[in-house]
């Protein structure tokens, strides 16, 4: 298979296991984000892909060749890390040409490639400028161009945008994704920012405690989370217990959930329902009974907090569909069975 394959990778530091039996395939030309809370093992996994650390167990293959023990400089990688490590005393052009020069590429070809890359990152004409005289976003682009100069097989970025302010970061996410699509380069990014992952990735790999909890397309991760950790980590959700009887009837939040059939044999578990799928109605008529405890108007969306069956449930609506409710009011909650994700507790 062309692309990257991680096969049963484990990394131990002494008795501590930072990465546990991780297997993942990254097909050629795809964009993967490793996403998870601090300490979940993202950087450790990335360092092994980069050849900066050796797995305790398992194998890493690039285009079917085993690269587990191949040194970093022979892996055909382009890397950008949080600290961009641009050479401050060199110009933009010299920074980008650096790896070409040490590979013995001729002066004319270096210049051609630098011009090509500068145009790609929208900095044509900046070749002679000292990197110290660039903005944060421009430096970021130069670091990306420098990593891509050798046309690597694999492009690795560890928290590449985290030092930028929020607006610039969002713009750079779109730019990076467009560049990756244009070049068709296999790319892996480490981030703890779920919005960033959802914006850029073909596949989001959600990690926790050294393990992959789910690897899937962003919308799949959001709509069909594999477990309560993923459901809770990605976006906002309502998580609450349910019980099911032998006929498959489901009870949650002190009421039965009409029409929801849980997989056979499951007598209890957890339901995950996104706030935009919670509909508030008049009480009665088979709706779950609740009482409004708080309303938060964020301008673009309105969040209504409702206490039901001892849990706090959040409903999100757009301003044009603002629920006509006030704090203290009794309401009904309607959950469409399609919107309920059944998870094990
Ligand atoms: P962050 O988002 O905070 O960078 P991360 O998901 O990238 O976190 P890692 O840096 O991969 O996490 O670390 C995973 C775990 O392994 C952490 O508990 C960390 O303390 C531990 N760890 C990482 N490197 C070493 C090391 N060289 N020696 C011992 N423990 C380490």
Would you mind describing this structure in some detail?
Helix content is 24%, strand content 34%. It is of the alpha+beta class. It folds into 2 domains: 4-229, P-loop containing nucleotide triphosphate hydrolases (Rossmann fold), CATH 3.40.50.300; 237-343, Nucleic acid-binding proteins (OB fold (Dihydrolipoamide Acetyltransferase, E2P), Beta Barrel), CATH 2.40.50. The strands form 4 sheets. The protein has a 6-stranded mixed β-sheet with strand order 6-7-8-3-9-10, sandwiched between helices. Strands 13-12-11-14-20 form a 5-stranded antiparallel β-sheet. Strand 9 (203-208) and strand 10 form a beta hairpin. The protein is elongated. The structure holds adenosine-5'-triphosphate (ATP). Adenosine-5'-triphosphate binds at residues 13, 16, 18, 36, 38-44, 192.
Task: Describe the structure concisely.
Helices cover 24% and strands 34% of the residues. With 345 residues, it is an alpha+beta fold. Helix 2 packs parallel to helix 4.
Give the key terms.
Putative spermidine/putrescine transport system ATP-binding protein; binds adenosine-5'-triphosphate; NA-bd_OB-fold; Rossmann fold; ATP binding; 2 domains; 345 residues; alpha+beta; OB fold (Dihydrolipoamide Acetyltransferase, E2P); single chain; six-stranded mixed beta sheet
CATH class of the largest domain: Alpha Beta
Instruction: Write the element-wise H/E pattern from the N-terminal end onward.
Output: EEEHEEEHHHEHEHEEHHEEEEEEEEEE
Mean pLDDT: 92
Low-confidence runs (pLDDT<50, min 5 residues)? none
Label the structural class. alpha+beta
Query: Nearest-angstrom radius of gyration?
Result: 25 Å
Identify the overall geometry. Answer: elongated
What's the end-to-end separation, in Å?
A: 37 Å
* SS summary, helix count: 8
Main sheet strand line-up: 6-7-8-3-9-10
Organism: Rhizobium subbaraonis
Protein name: Putative spermidine/putrescine transport system ATP-binding protein
Domain ABC transporter: 4-234
Keywords: ATP-binding, Nucleotide-binding, Transport
